[in-house]
Automatic annotation (TrEMBL):
<feature type="transmembrane region" description="Helical">
    <location>
        <begin position="294"/>
        <end position="311"/>
    </location>
</feature>
<feature type="transmembrane region" description="Helical">
    <location>
        <begin position="256"/>
        <end position="274"/>
    </location>
</feature>
<feature type="transmembrane region" description="Helical">
    <location>
        <begin position="223"/>
        <end position="244"/>
    </location>
</feature>
<keyword id="KW-0812">Transmembrane</keyword>
<keyword id="KW-0472">Membrane</keyword>
<protein>
    <submittedName>
        <fullName>Uncharacterized protein</fullName>
    </submittedName>
</protein>
<keyword id="KW-1133">Transmembrane helix</keyword>
<feature type="region of interest" description="Disordered">
    <location>
        <begin position="1"/>
        <end position="21"/>
    </location>
</feature>
<feature type="transmembrane region" description="Helical">
    <location>
        <begin position="53"/>
        <end position="74"/>
    </location>
</feature>
<feature type="transmembrane region" description="Helical">
    <location>
        <begin position="190"/>
        <end position="211"/>
    </location>
</feature>
Length: 316
């Protein structure tokens, strides 16, 4: 997006680097007394260094996820050995009739096979797009140096937008799994407030994409454009179906507290988004900047609500 905005900028402006445009947008935000002093921190960030750090952080996150999966598998194996020491020597357990049966963990993996295949399919499609469309970006001659710098900073993902696009792609199998297992949704930490906040965030994101010019809040790169719009629309449809199922279940024993909590949270987050936003949109389109901040705040609220429900279930 930085390259496209630089290409369409008036010729009488002096552009030094993408970071200069980034700082300009930050300084153009009308700051209120209630806004926190995080804008000075964002202003001091180097865009190039931040991109490299974000990519390094992504790789480290994958390593940590692999380590967590290994620790979970080890803990399950130890639990199985404590429960049945006589069959602790291998993955396959002997049933009472003498036949070989799959343990619970492998049965669970078989039950989750559709979700695993869907995630692998998303990753395969994303990888193919990154390989095939890496050099399909039309860059003006005066911005070739900037584009070359971006490619050096993001050698695998091509642009920073690809990271956001990949996140949107991975949401689809997650929400599809919850929608296909809607009858069991009440036992999931995703039910209730997390679903409500995620639905509002998806609605805000789709509204932002529908009302925003393509050179402002639409993603660039191999995973951007119409692909990102399709992923966000699919996530919204799946969340709407999941919310409808939960509302039918909730109608059997209605409670006003969750609805009131969502309404009050939406008003509070809307105020925070209005007072803490970046001025990326053109003058007169400040509502787009508010929608951008509101979407991320709603997703943060959904994550906190999910964590709270998961801890509550674990304690029970």
């Amino acid at each position: 997006s930085v390259v496209r905005r630089r290409a369409q900028a008036p010729r009488d402006r002096t552009h030094v680097s993408p970071l200069s445009d980034y700082r300009t947008t930050l300084h153009s935000v009308p700051r209120s007394p209630a806004a926190p002093r995080t804008m000075a921190f964002l202003d001091a960030l180097s865009l190039a260094g931040y991109s490299a750090a974000a990519q390094h952080s992504t790789l480290m996150s994958l390593v940590l996820l692999a380590a967590a999966a290994g620790a979970w598998a080890l803990e399950r194996c130890q639990a199985a050995r404590r429960a049945a020491p006589e069959v602790a020597g291998g993955l396959l357990a002997a049933s009472p009739g003498g036949a070989v049966a799959l343990p619970k963990d492998l049965s669970m993996l078989r039950r989750l096979l559709p979700e695993l295949c869907a995630v692998l399919l998303c990753l395969s499609v994303a990888g193919a797009l990154l390989i095939c469309r890496a050099n399909d970006q039309a860059v003006p001659t005066e911005d070739e140096e900037v584009w070359r710098q971006i490619r050096n900073e993001w050698p695998l993902l091509v642009t920073a937008d690809s990271l956001v696009g990949l996140q949107a792609m991975l949401r689809v199998p997650l929400f599809a799994s919850a929608a296909l297992r809607a009858k069991e949704a009440s036992a999931s930490p995703l039910a209730g407030l997390p679903t409500a906040f995620l639905l509002l965030a998806a609605l805000v994101q789709v509204t932002l994409l529908a009302t925003s010019p393509k050179d402002v809040y639409h993603l660039d790169g191999p995973l951007g454009g119409n692909i990102d719009i399709a992923m966000e629309g699919s996530a919204l449809a799946l969340l709407a179906y999941l919310a409808a199922v939960q509302l039918r279940q909730w109608g059997q024993s209605p409670r006003c507290a969750p609805a009131l909590a969502v309404l009050l949270s939406l008003l509070a987050l809307g105020h925070v988004a209005w007072t803490n936003r970046m001025a990326l949109a053109d003058p007169g389109d400040e509502h787009l900047d508010v929608l951008f901040s509101l979407r991320h705040l709603l997703e943060l609220a959904a994550a906190l609500a999910f964590l709270g429900r998961a801890l509550h279930s674990a304690m029970d």
